[in-house]
Amino acid sequence: MNKKASGPVAAALLVLLSACSGGETNGAPAAAPTFALRVDQETTGAIIGRVSFAGVAPENPMAKLSGDPVCSRAHATGMAVENYVVNDGGLDNVFVYVKDLGNYRFDAPAEPVKLDQQGCRYVPHVLGVQVGQPVEISNSDETMHNVHAVPRVNREMNIGQHVKDQKDTHTFTTAEVMVPLKCDLHPWMNAYVGVVPHPYYAVTRDGGKFELKNLPPGTYTIEAWHEKAGTQAQQVTIDSKATRGVTFTFKSAATN
Ligand SMILES: [Cu+2]
């Protein structure tokens, strides 16, 4: 009886052990633990790119600032929201990043990425941060804001900033492109944070320009995200010590 029972018990134990070690259940030995590479700085290349904008950008709506006198005083002639920021035919506030870097490991920088509330708007409107890197959130206004992140995979965050010069720090724990932020007190205020597990990200500026530096040689999917115009991706091969030019062209969501 004991001998008959030992068969299934032993098999169950094997399956359990195998599951715990993350290996196969078909009897093959468990795969060796994966190890992450460090980037060899001697061989890195770079991408210098631009996001251009085809056509005429839709006019950005004006924020209804009248609900808060501090906000309306800060913008005597009104303030448009930042849906489309086009300079010299280039689209700014596009988050560009390497989507599939591969098995590299990076320490999260201790230096915080900064997000301020100035004149009842987020500065910057689009930002990037590494997983585990602190985001320092500040309030430069003489009014109350709250910073409310509504992520899909990260933990929700809602920080009230009641007084001028209040500072708080938040850390996103999981990669997520993009995490929307909003202020529940001022409905026009929003921002977007791209959380990535590596340093290869940029936000376009000065007419759609961006750079991704110190990339290890390889073939990558480069994704470009814009809050209204959508997302585009392209494959780019980076050779050792080489710099590649990359161009994306967006158009208005209304004409897609
Ligand atoms: Cu606010």
Which properties best describe this structure?
256 residues; five-stranded mixed sheet; 2 domains; mainly beta; single chain; Immunoglobulin-like; four-stranded antiparallel sheet; globular; binds copper (II) ion
Number of helices: 2
Q: And the CATH topology of the largest domain?
A: Immunoglobulin-like
Mean pLDDT: 89
Helix and strand run: HEHEEEEEEEEEEEEEEEEE
SS-derived structural category:
mainly beta
**Tally of discrete structural domains:** 2
SSE layout and pairings?
Blueprint: H1 2-20, E1 45-54, H2 69-74, E2 85-87, E3 90-92, E4 95-98, E5 113-117, E6 122-123, E7 126-130, E8 134-139, E9 145-149, E10 157-161, E11 167-171, E12 176-182, E13 190-196, E14 201-203, E15 209-215, E16 218-226, E17 230-238, E18 243-251
Parallel strand pairs: 1-18, 5-8, 7-13
Antiparallel strand pairs: 1-15, 2-3, 4-14, 4-16, 5-6, 8-11, 9-10, 9-12, 12-13, 16-17
This protein binds copper (II) ion.
Tell me what the structure shows.
- With 256 residues, the protein is mainly beta.
- It has 2 helices and 18 strands.
- It has helices spanning 2-20, 69-74, and strands spanning 45-54, 85-87, 90-92, 95-98, 113-117, 122-123, 126-130, 134-139, 145-149, 157-161, 167-171, 176-182, 190-196, 201-203, 209-215, 218-226, 230-238, 243-251.
- Strands 7-13-12-9-10 form a 5-stranded mixed β-sheet, with no helix packed on it. A 4-stranded antiparallel β-sheet has the order 14-4-16-17, with no helix packed on it.
- A hairpin with a 7-residue loop joins strand 9 (145-149) and strand 10.
- It is globular and about 55 Å long.
- The protein starts with a helix and ends in a 5-residue tail after the last strand.
- It binds copper (II) ion (CU).
